[in-house]
Design a protein that fits this description.
Blueprint lengths: L1 H33 L5 E10 L5 E12 L3 E3 L1 H11 L2 H21 L6 E5 L2 H6 L2 H12 L6 E6 H6 L1 H12 L4 E7 L6 H6 L4 E4 L1 H6 L4 H16 L3 E4 L5 H9 L4 E3 L9 H10 L2 H5 L6
Bound molecules: ligand C2E and magnesium ion (MG) (3 copies).
């Protein structure tokens, strides 16, 4: 009986896994045509300083509408693009597009905001990223310090030695560096101290629960203190409520990003958002005591 059950269970899993593998292969093969078919675009999510309520920058986020498969979220296609190596080509497109957009916005007077771009560790370790970025910065004429590269904590720490060297090479170009999804990986504090980074982004998983989970509250407060003692700027991502914002401000978090401020926006709408944003709206939020 147990044996029969075991066999059925096994069969069930292999069938499910086959179906999933086939689906992933379908998505990966469509993704190969996405660039030529013009199916990719960027949206931009603003972030705000908790000190003065100014918009300090935006994050470029990749969107894919496949003619064959419909909208596929980055949580699905980015890992596939990393597995297949396509992320090198896609990532370069993202960097060009994001920097080109920032260059246009700068002509519209937005000269004091940064453009944050997510970079896969594969780009960092296998690609000629410093050369690519030097060329893009030159072509678009943006100040390198206005470009911020985000790499996820788990990816960097899994390749700590090589990542550190690659980040130093990027830093030499004058671009800013941030560790993304901080708190979800297993950072060695030694490496964290050695990394040539400017910013930590606290993962939205902790931020989402700070106002009702004491553990997440403690983790968030500790990360902010630790980051500041290492001289790093701290951004909380996934801030959705005024309560979360008030708590983060009370803890001395430097900046916030999330639906409370804005969803990711089309380029034109993002430009309009930043132009019409008035810091007083944000700074008027009272502390919780
Ligand atoms: P991420 O870099 O941590 O980006 C933040 C994600 O949180 C985005 O999801 C954003 O839409 C979402 N988000 C923002 N505010 C809120 C909020 O208040 N609540 C909630 N629940 N979510 C919020 P998205 O756009 O689906 O991207 C997911 C991940 O895919 C990104 O996480 C990033 O790791 C990756 N990704 C996106 N675009 C690129 C890209 O161009 N290159 C690479 N390598 N990865 C990318
Ligand atoms: Mg990011
Ligand atoms: Mg993140
Ligand atoms: Mg929790």
């Amino acid at each position: 009986q147990a044996k029969a059950l075991g066999r059925n269970t096994f069969q069930f899993y292999t069938e499910a896994m086959d179906a999933e593998a086939r689906q992933r292969a379908t998505i990966a093969s469509s993704l190969r045509k996405a660039l030529e078919r013009d199916e990719l675009r960027l949206v931009f999510q603003p972030r705000m300083s908790l000190v003065d309520g100014r918009i300090t920058g935006v994050e470029a986020l990749l969107r894919w509408h496949s003619a064959e498969l419909g909208d596929i979220p980055p949580s699905v296609f980015i890992p596939l693009a990393e597995e297949s190596g396509q992320i090198l080509r896609l990532g370069e497109w993202v960097l060009r597009e994001a920097c080109g957009t920032l260059a246009r916005w700068r002509q519209h007077g937005l000269t004091d905001i940064a453009m944050a771009v997510n970079v896969s560790v594969l780009q960092l370790l296998r690609g000629n990223l410093p050369e690519v970025i030097a060329e893009i910065v030159e072509d678009t004429g943006i100040p390198p310090a206005r470009l911020e590269l985000e790499v996820t904590e788990s990816m960097v720490m899994a390749n700590a030695e090589q990542s550190t060297a690659a980040l130093h090479a990027l830093r030499a170009l004058g671009v800013s560096l941030a560790i993304d999804d901080f708190g979800t990986g297993y950072s060695s504090l030694i490496y964290l101290k050695r990394l040539p980074i400017d910013t930590l982004k606290i993962d939205k998983e902790f931020v989402g629960d700070i106002t009702h989970d004491p553990d997440d509250e403690a983790i968030t407060a500790t990360v902010i203190t630790m980051a500041h003692s290492l001289g790093l700027n701290v951004i909380a991502e996934g801030v959705e409520t005024e309560e979360q914002l008030a708590y983060l401000r009370e803890q001395g978090c430097d900046e916030i990003q999330g639906f409370w401020l804005s969803q990711p926006l089309e380029p034109q709408r993002c430009l309009a958002f930043v132009h019409t944003w008035r810091p007083t709206l944000a700074t008027a939020v009272p502390p919780p005591y």
